[in-house]
Amino acid sequence: xxxxxxxxxxxxxxxxxxxxxxxxxxxxxxxxxxxxxxxxxxxxxxxxxxxxxxxxxxxxxxxxxxxxxxxxxxxxxxxxxxxxxxxxxxxxxxxxxxxxxxxxxxxxxxxxxxxxxxxxxxxxxxxxxxxxxxxxxxxxxxxxxxxxxxxxxxxxxxxxxxxxxxxxxxxxxxxxxxxxxxxxxxxxxxxxxxxxxxxxxxxxxxxxxxxxxxxxxxxxxxxxxxxxxxxxxxxxxxxxxxxxxxxxxx
Length: 250
Hints:
By secondary structure, the protein is an alpha/beta fold. It has helices at residues 12-24, 35-45, 61-70, 89-94, 107-118, 130-142, 153-162, 179-188, 226-245; strands spanning 4-8, 28-32, 49-53, 79-83, 99-102, 122-126, 146-150, 167-171, 173-174, 177-178, 197-200, 218-220. The longest helix is centred in the last third of the chain and has 20 residues, at 226-245. It starts with a strand and ends in a 5-residue tail after the last helix.
C-alpha cells in the first residue's frame, strides 16, 4: 500500500508541482490550500506525513502545526515544514515538526526526507525489567517504530533470526548474564556485526564506557529514563536515515 502524504500549501502551482512529483514516486497525495482545510483533511484521512507551508493567509503554518500537535488524532503524524523563511525553523522544530526544508528545494531531497519518516524502522529492545520495557515499547510505537523485545541472550538471538532490526537498544546488565560478552558475541558474527547498538545500565560505572564495549554507538549509565532512551534511538535513526539518503540533518 502506498504511503499517503498531505500537502498543505496555499500556492496552487507549488502544491501541484509537489503533488505531481510525489505521485510519480508512488505516493498517494492529498492537497489542502489553506490551514483550516489542512487540519480537516489531516483528521479525516490520517496521512502518513504532512508537508506544511508556513506563510499562508488566515491560519499560518505555525498555528496549523500547533493545532496538529495538540490534537490526539493527529499529533503523531510527522510534519515536514516547507518554507522560504529559515527563521521559522527553530520554532517549528520546537513545536514538534520532524524536519525543516527551505524553499526552493530539490524534489529528490523532499522525497528522500519523506521516505525517511514514512518507512517503518524496526527496533529490538533487550530488557528484563517488564515495566521499563513496556514504557519503551509504548513510546516507540507512538513514533511509528516496529518494536520487538527480548529479555535474555537466547531470546535476543531468536529475534535476530526472525529478521535484522535497524537498531538494538540493550540493557547491558542482565540477571545471571554477562551483557558485555553478549555484545562481543553479537559483534563477532558477520551477519549481525553491522547492526547499530545503543546500550544502557541502571547504575553509574567508572570502569564501563564505550571504549570497553567494542562496536556500540552509545553507552548510557545511571538512572534509566525510558523517554530519554527512546530519544537516543530516535536521534540515531534520524541520523542514519539522513546519511542513507545523502541529506544532512535539518
